[in-house]
């Protein structure tokens, strides 16, 4: 079976490499020539644990994985073509921007030469896969191709394991032939008894948005509870623990923090709200999740100004962690960006450090701030602390878990920690002379 991934981004490249690991010949296509050249040289264009090894294995040893910018070449004798292009939020409205999906659909339509199945793996609003079918039908009879919705649930930072050992695979299609081909494709997962959910195309599309927005709701909910805990003197960590033990609730995604970011939750919550409104459904819960998260991204700044006042001129803040979560260099919608912008606008200087995301983070800020040294990206976590008035922990990379307090004391001007991930023990920090402020405790 020959597979094509159209869009060699996070999802396309990881899925392509993992399908090669399952033993399938896979071609990844991207319109970005420099990206393809980089990958061909053996370098993964983003940080993802295990990806470099997998790329080397399947490009050089098994030769099951190849790359091209030509969809026409890739589609020669292809059996399944996955659409894995981005579906970001539109700038003005909150609906998903599907322009890349439509471009790819027209191109696929021109290049179908033998029967193949076209699969939307990108996260797309309900109705999109059927529109893709209509586009392709303008060029080729529906007997010669099938369409399937097969959303992807991998998480950045653990993407390979998530892909190879998913909780479930969702296959939405109306065609028995397409479903059989998809089930053949995912047969390697039978060994680990992965549930395969067969459903209609519409249901499959909704499952993806509903899953992401449910997880976002859990985060929004616990952040709301964190505010309540601060107001009444409770501890959100213990509340989450007490709740999460209940199997009906579950402990995952119940961590109070600086708000969710990343390439999926923010845009997917916005997109499902838009879809609901368009369908005449009032998205009350989801609206609240979205608003709550915008607010949460300002929470750390509120804590800082409560201590230092609204004018932060002359103060230096060390920011540890920039990516939206550990294990990735993805800066999309990262809460660190909101915080750093607020700090600098309030007159502060920022010394930031992330073990892998410094390079991506630079792109998010004004060059003037960097040249005037209002914002400095540091080579290690301790140099970010030099002469700082406070440390703000934003992303909970493992390396930040147990810092040397003697080094902190030696380097920092004020012993002050704003802990956006509740990583440190407040009593321990206070007993060591630090001012400590976490989230919701
Ligand atoms: P991405 O931005 O990393 O990659 C998209 C790629 O598509 C880019 O490399 C781009 O150059 C390429 N592309 C755009 N138009 C093209 C065209 N016409 N022809 C060929 N290539 C084209 O995006 P991503 O993070 O991989 O996300 C892809 C989709 O998967 C989105 O819908 C996203 O919501 C969904 N998703 C993402 C994740 C994740 O963790 N990143 C997880 C699950 C689902």
Report on the structure:
By secondary structure, the chain is of the alpha/beta class. The protein contains 18 helices and 14 strands. It has helices spanning 10-21, 33-40, 51-61, 71-74, 99-111, 128-137, 159-164, 176-185, 201-232, 236-244, 265-278, 284-296, 299-308, 335-345, 358-362, 367-371, 405-411, 426-431, and strands at residues 2-6, 25-29, 65-68, 80-83, 116-120, 145-149, 169-172, 196-199, 316-320, 349-353, 375-377, 390-393, 416-419, 435-437. The protein has a 6-stranded parallel β-sheet with strand order 3-2-1-4-5-6, with helices on both faces. The protein has a 6-stranded parallel β-sheet with strand order 11-10-9-12-13-14. The chain has a two-stranded parallel ribbon with strand order 7-8. α11 (265-278) packs antiparallel against α12. The protein is globular.
